[in-house]
Known about the structure:
This protein has 215 residues and is mostly beta strands. It has one helix spanning 2-23; strands at residues 24-28, 44-45, 55-59, 64-69, 75-83, 93-105, 109-116, 128-133, 141-148, 157-164, 172-187, 205-210. It is built from 1 helix and 12 strands, in the order αββββββββββββ. The radius of gyration is 21 Å and the shape is globular.
Amino acid sequence: MLKKRFTEIALAVALTMSAxxxxxxxxxxxxxxxxxxxxxxGWEQFPGSLGPAGxxxxxxxxxxxxxxxxxxxxxxxxxxxxxxPGAWVGGETxxxxxxxxxxxxxxxxLFVEFFNELSGGGVGPGGGILAAIxxxxxxxxTYNYSTVVDASATGGITLQLAAVCGAVEGCFxxxxxxxxxxxxxxxxxxxxxxxxxxxSGPVSYTHLTLPTITE
Length: 215
């Protein structure tokens, strides 16, 4: 009788663990990562980062593309902010992938940054700059990075892309971004409804650019 009861308990535990494992899905949690809406739906633009030209829609590859223009000696920045708050327990691996082409010089770079967001505001430990790309290619190139979520990410996670140009004579940064994907093995949670609006239509990408600085 005791042996039978032990077997039932062990089976129940195994089924529970199996059910828990089934709830974790390796999925792309980025919203509008391919910019198929032709604008920044799903993306947050850093307050004050837009230059006088603001946000415009221009000819893309071959569809429409979002184009940002930024004043000199500044950062042209967009981000997928506070993704899946409350869904992270810490230790999950995040795989980030995107396509990029462009040109840069005299210190112009694209910063790829990741942050663990606190539910009350601010960021937790473990985040920061994943890469500083200073020599983009003229053709589309795929970039891949991985990081780990900290348990402090009660307010979700954030991926930030910034075309940065310092106050250096001749500095310029001109980046086109497409197919941004943020893969994570997280518990099954509802994906934002906006994501189902994408997946069809012309190819689009976003364009981050900073003007040349002259003295």
